[in-house]
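Repro:
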Amino acid sequence: MFHDLTRENSGKVRDILRMLRPHRLMDADKKRMGRFFDGGYVMLDRFEGVTAAYSLGINDDVSWDLDIAAQGIPIYQYDHTIHDLPARHNLFHWEKIGIAAEPQEGFESLERLIIKNGHENAENMLLKIDIEGAEWDVFAGTASHTLRKFSQIVAELHWLEQIGGYDFGERARRGITNLAATHKLVHVHANNHAPWIVLGGVPLPSVLEVTLGRMDLGQYEISNESFPTLLDMPCHSQLADLYLGRFTFD
């Protein structure tokens, strides 16, 4: 799928993507959390001292949640599109609530949920967010001091074919700028359920899975990894994984 852009907009797309340059946290291993294929995410193996995890967007899969709960970490789960969880665990706390940048009927903001759960002073939590495109509004509208409460953030970033547009592009820029103020990208993987797109000569998947580590976890250096790695699996098990290489846009 090709999207023609002016040279100016092409530069804007590259500027946004440069903020997602992969880094390596020195002296830290990675591990896959969640099921094989779709639903699993590669994270830093740094779970010591984590006090809680937020899982935003459940659908029919709690495999990530179960692996996090196996670390002894309570999970606070939110999804307004399901009537019940597909599986239960004594560390699961689920509510049928959607996530939005601002509270509204049936939806809550991340900040208000953190306060509601008594986590306003927490400094070492995990965040997993897969809310079908609404993540851009959440990241753009959530203060950096709130995002900083999460030592790791795992997110699906949807609709990348739209970042060349003015409104969506500015929302994406604000969201990634907020994330980049406190976190470094440590892993990236393409969701192969969606097609390749080309924006101003830049080939991209429509949906990215990203993992970010907070800057104070240790010393970071620019990564030389090629993505996907041996820990990754294609989301669609019958299709080839999408090759991202080093995912740099200099």
